[in-house]
Amino acid sequence: MKEKVNESNNKKVNKNIFEQYKKKAKKLSQNEKRVLALIILLIISAITFFLIIFNLIKGQEVSNEINKYTQARGVDKEHFERVRNSEEYKRMKIYTGEIIKSIVNKQYENVYNKLDKDYKEKYFNTLEEFKKYCENRLPENLVVIHNNIERIGEYYVLDVDLVNSENPRDIKSRRNVYFVFKEYKIEDYVFSFAKKSYVDEEKREEILNN
């Protein structure tokens, strides 16, 4: 009888010890979860902080490069950003607008420096020749009307009408022209142009080579 009582007491003691162990194990498990969650949170915070710092540094580097580039080329920074954020066909229209604006303002040297080297040697050996062409062959108060634009290989071909803004219906002064651009970087391009006297597609290669 006494042995049964002792056995019962031993079972109770063992049960109590087991329950205490379970509680400790549960507490330990919860603590481990808290520690793990804290570690994960710290890692995420560190990565986020690193990315913020990296983007700030990268953004500053890009801004510095843009400043150097625009200053070296005499380009307005806001204008450069607008061009940089434009899709390729929009950029070609902007470049065309720059050329027309320079011609209207009689800044012929700016335009002359943008002409493709081979094209320039073939048609305008000197700045004076180009200036005379612009003054004698292009309409006064020049504006551009875009008809079509397409890409052929590394070239962009723009079909435009050059007209007198004060008399856009004057057929005699209107010039139908192909502008051909080759872009190296943003605001770094060369161009050529040809008076359009034919429309068949077989002549496109000849235009590109002008």
List keywords for this structure.
alpha+beta, Nuclear Transport Factor 2, Chain: A
In short:
With 210 residues, the chain is of the alpha+beta class. It is built from seven helices and four strands; from the N terminus they run ααααααββββα. It has a domain at 77-209: Nuclear Transport Factor 2, Chain: A.
Summarize the helix and strand pattern as letters: HHHHHHEEEEH
Overall strand count: 4
Rg calculated over all Cα atoms: 37 Å
- Overall 3D geometry? elongated
Q: Main β-sheet: number of strands, strand sense, barrel status?
A: 4 strands, antiparallel
CATH class of the domain at 77-209: Alpha Beta
Give the overall average pLDDT. 77
End-to-end C-alpha gap: 119 Å
* Tally of helical segments: 7
Give the low-confidence spans.
Answer: 197-204
Secondary-structure-derived class: alpha+beta
> Which topology of the domain at 77-209 does CATH recognise?
Nuclear Transport Factor 2, Chain: A
User: What is the helix content?
Assistant: 55-70%
Strand order of the largest sheet: 1-2-3-4
CATH architecture of the domain at 77-209: Roll
Strand content of the residues, in percent?
15-25%
Describe this structure in words.
This protein is of the alpha+beta class and 210 residues long. It has a domain of 133 residues: Roll (Nuclear Transport Factor 2, Chain: A). It has 7 helices and 4 strands, in the order ααααααββββα. A 4-stranded antiparallel beta sheet has the order 1-2-3-4. A hairpin with a 2-residue loop joins β1 and β2. The longest helix has 72 residues. It is elongated and about 110 Å long. It starts with a helix and ends with a helix. 8% of the residues are buried. About 4% of the residues have low confidence.
